[in-house]
Amino acid sequence: MKIPQWQRDGLPYTWMPYMQMQTAPIPVPVVRTNGVRLILDDGRELIDGTSSWWTACHGYNHPHILEAVNKQLYKMPHVMFGGIQHPPALLLAQRLAKLLPGDLNHVFFTDSGSVAVEVALKMAVQYWLNLGETGRTKFVCFKNAYHGDTTGAMSVCDPLDSMHSHFKGFLLKQFPSSIPHTDAQFVEFQRFLYEHKQELAGVIIEPLVQGAGGMKFHTAESVARIRQACDAMNLLMIADEVATGFGRTGTMFACEQAEIVPDIICIGKALTGGTLGMAATIATGKVFDAFLSNDPQRALMHGPTYMANPLACAAANATLDLFETEPRIQQSLAMEMYFKETLQHCKELPGVVDVRQKGAIGVIQVESLHSLARLNGEFVESGIWVRPFNDIIYLTPPLCMSQGDLQTLCEKLVNVITKWSKT
Ligand code: PLP
């Protein structure tokens, strides 16, 4: 691929995420997006199989979102949220509270999923402090979990297998556990909670799907029983739905499938439909009320500079409009059926360990992602954008993708993997 001049000029000054800058191939030069396509500098188009890290649920440049952001841009692109409120944020908070299960009614806006997780952890720790219980500062988290790249969030990721394992000595010590499935495992899990109860603030989980930690799925029943265990031990349950929220698993939020209400939920990614960085941490009345006092020290001491950015709020409100008017949940469920039909063929290929799907998430797990650079190059050459990691090749396309584009995406994916698996 020809390297455009703008990329040649800027490349030496840019430090890319998760990338070995000495050896990695030059990133793909994208100059425009449109619908479900990325448009390259040389005019070629790639069908996007990633939704830009789970964000662009309605596709790119959706006219309804662009119009909302554009209108807000001329009114007020930004204003601080400290001591000030504005209509797009207050409307969004009300709408999120209505949309979320149970009484998750108290919305704290942040600017990224990692920070939403930091705020959730901090909320949970301070909840206990405000109730006069000191020492409850730790969390039970899970093997294969991924909650973000800031230090608090890193501490609740899988301590061994996550990309944060180098930082072991630097991170807070938490209590990692396996996600329990069987009755015996639940008994063990409850014993584990009981043993550490005095030190624990809560349990943090990505419900149904553990994303960046390996696209592992667990059942709604496990999530429901973890909620019960938290209740039995009087621990807060934090659901990190930064990735799973907004229809990706076939319901608006994954917690709905387990019919549970967590004490705190984190959302982000698709919240603005892939337009602007925004996330939120939302608490139930029980958690919120523990912060109410005449004592200013009992307030939540957190406030990202760009929290509740009006442009991001406008994009999020427009995103929610589209969830009301477009059949996104049905599209997510239909995608699950389609992945089941088309991707399962890959199970027969050499080196393929597992093929699984949940909502609009399709996963092909392999023994090893050998010659990854070549594989990535072949995806691009064939006209699709897919970004494998660890031992996983996965699809999380925009939920709105047409049947024709989905068919092309899956066919090309299967063709490339078939050739690659035989080398
Ligand atoms: N939590 C989960 C479950 C995620 O998948 C991610 C990102 O992939 C995060 C938190 C962190 O979000 P962000 O990258 O916006 O900081």
Task: Furnish the topology, listing elements before pairings.
Blueprint: H1 5-10, E1 30-34, E2 37-40, E3 45-48, H2 51-54, H3 63-75, H4 87-99, E4 104-110, H5 113-130, E5 138-142, H6 151-155, E6 175-177, H7 183-196, E7 200-205, E8 209-210, E9 216-217, H8 220-233, E10 236-240, H9 255-258, E11 264-267, E12 279-284, H10 285-289, H11 310-325, H12 328-343, E13 352-358, E14 361-366, H13 372-382, E15 384-385, E16 392-395, H14 403-421
Parallel strand pairs: 3-15, 5-6, 5-7, 7-10, 10-11
Antiparallel strand pairs: 1-2, 2-3, 4-12, 8-9, 11-12, 13-14, 14-16
Helix pairs in contact: 3-11, 4-11, 7-8, 12-14, 13-14
The structure holds pyridoxal-5'-phosphate.
What does this 3D model show about the protein?
It contains 14 helices and 16 strands. By secondary structure, it is an alpha/beta fold. Strands 4-12-11-10-7-5-6 form a 7-stranded mixed sheet, with helices on both faces. The chain has a 4-stranded mixed sheet with strand order 1-2-3-15. The protein has a 3-stranded antiparallel sheet with strand order 13-14-16, with helices on one face. Strand 8 and strand 9 form a beta hairpin. It starts with a helix and ends with a helix. The model has no long low-confidence stretch (mean pLDDT 97). The structure holds pyridoxal-5'-phosphate. Pyridoxal-5'-phosphate binds next to helix 5. The site of pyridoxal-5'-phosphate (PLP) has 15 residues, from helix 5.
